[in-house]
Specification:
Elements (H helix, E strand, L loop, with lengths): L7 E5 L3 H13 L3 E5 L2 H10 L4 E5 L7 H10 L8 E5 L4 H9 L4 E4 L4 H18 L12 H10 L6 E8 L1 H8 L1 H22 L5 E6 L2 E6 L1 H18 L20 E8 L8 H9 L1
């Protein structure tokens, strides 16, 4: 769980007295605090080094807090950062506008700093609980995957496939984030379809890492499943490239490629979850 000692906060507030007070208060609470007095600076700071939460004043000297929130929600790196609006505006329409922009909370001046601290803590807690699925593929990741892998330690028979997508970073550099996200989504759908065609609803699919998928299945079905996934992916990867770049195999180490590793229960014993994950990663 996120703790106050580790959490980072960006305060975007043009009132220097309020900004200094909040900076000092949250630092005493154990947070890593940064302050911006201008909206543009706040956006740039978030994009360069995203915080875990933003306390955002609506009335700023350049662009207003609503515009800051719009830009944060449109950017892939910052779209999921919790935002707490801090403002003197009390009208219902102002609150609704903030909520429509994806604000997680709304507190008006003058405010009780203890109440703000609790709202910050709760927003961070909700944010952490929400990061259980990959934002691109919506497949489970993190703790949800660890829980399912740990269950394998207590079962006699199981097989795990690790499906890795190589060179996606290079692909992203050339064709952009949107294209690379499309690749991840398509690969996740092809794996899902293969599992649906070959196995049963008890199988589990999740992210081992942002570019690696893990499939937990039965030993009886794993060979056919591995063959089906390998065939589908290898036949499809070239189509993610623009027509003019398809079939260019002269630089293999930079071309999208799939690697699939298989781990069985009888390859143990596994001491713990870390041991299982380390052997799977090899």
């Amino acid at each position: 769980m996120l703790t106050e000692e580790r959490a980072s906060i960006l305060i975007v507030e043009d009132d220097l007295d309020v900004a200094d007070m909040l900076n000092a208060y949250f630092k005493v609470q154990g947070y890593d605090v940064r302050v911006s007095n201008w909206g543009e600076d706040g956006v740039n700071t978030c994009q360069e080094n995203p915080p875990q939460l933003v306390i955002l004043d609506i009335r700023l000297p350049d662009i207003d807090g609503y515009e800051v929130a719009r830009r944060l929600r449109k950017n892939r790196r910052t779209q999921n950062i919790p935002i707490i609006f801090l403002t003197e505006k009390r009208a219902r329409n102002d609150r609704l506008m903030g909520l429509e922009l994806g604000a997680d909370d709304y507190i008006t001046k003058p405010f009780d700093v203890q109440e703000l601290r609790l709202r910050v803590r709760n927003a961070l807690s909700r944010s952490e609980q929400g990061v259980l699925t990959n934002p691109v593929t919506n497949l489970p990741e993190g703790l949800l995957v660890d829980e399912r892998l740990e269950e394998c330690l207590h079962r006699k028979e199981w097989s795990v496939l690790l499906v890795g997508l190589h060179n996606l970073e290079k692909f992203r550099e050339i064709y952009g984030f949107v294209a690379s996200d499309d690749v991840l989504r398509a690969v996740s759908l092809m794996i899902n379809n293969a599992v649906r065609d070959v196995t049963n609803s008890n199988d589990f699919i999740g992210h081992f890492s942002p570019v690696e998928f893990v499939v937990i299945t039965s030993p009886e079905q794993v060979d056919e499943l591995m063959e089906r996934i390998t065939t589908r992916l290898e036949q499809s990867l070239d189509y993610f490239y623009p027509l003019k770049d398809r079939g260019k195999k002269d630089d293999q180490h930079q071309h999208l490629a799939v690697a699939i590793h298989l781990l069985h229960a009888d390859q143990g014993p596994f001491q713990n979850l870390d041991d299982l994950k380390a052997k799977l990663d090899k």
